[in-house]
Amino acid sequence: MAISATSPSPVPLPVTREPPVQSAKPVEPTPPSAPTVTPAPKPVDIGSAAPTSRRTTVDQSTGELVYQVIDDHSGQKISQSPDEAILRIRAYARQMETAKQPVPLTPKAVAKG
């Protein structure tokens, strides 16, 4: 079954043009106004922001550097990189890797007699 792609011939629409609308009152020129002044942005009050400090430590289980941002007021940790979950995964992987390694053989002490 063949489908033909014929389109109907376009039907021209009548073109109507309306005359331009004229206002009843003549337009008066507006006097020049004072230049517009945009207000200056408000200064940021640095004193209102929570004081923070940065701490760099070494994670004992992975031996990796840990960067932390600490709130000085409360002493709570705000952010940390790498995340604690990532550190736990790396510590687990490190333990599994050390468990695979064979125990090194040490020579037995020779008794002299």
Would you give an account of this structure?
The chain contains one helix and three strands, in the order βββα. With 113 residues, it is of the alpha+beta class. The chain has a domain at 50-100. A three-stranded antiparallel β-sheet has the order 1-2-3, with no helix packed on it. It is elongated and about 130 Å long. The chain starts with 51 loop residues before the first strand and ends in a 13-residue tail after the last helix.
Strand count, sense and closure of the main sheet?
3 strands, antiparallel
Helix count? 1
Tell me roughly what share of residues is in helical segments. 10-25%
Q: Rg from C-alpha positions?
A: 40 Å
- N- and C-termini, Cα separation: 107 Å
The portion of residues forming beta strands comes to: 15-25%
**Mean pLDDT over the full residue set:** 76
Structural class: alpha+beta
Task: Output the strand order for the largest sheet.
Answer: 1-2-3
| Low-pLDDT ranges | none
Q: What sort of overall outline do the alpha carbons produce when their principal axes are compared?
A: elongated
Number of strands: 3
The arrangement of helices and strands along the chain is EEEH
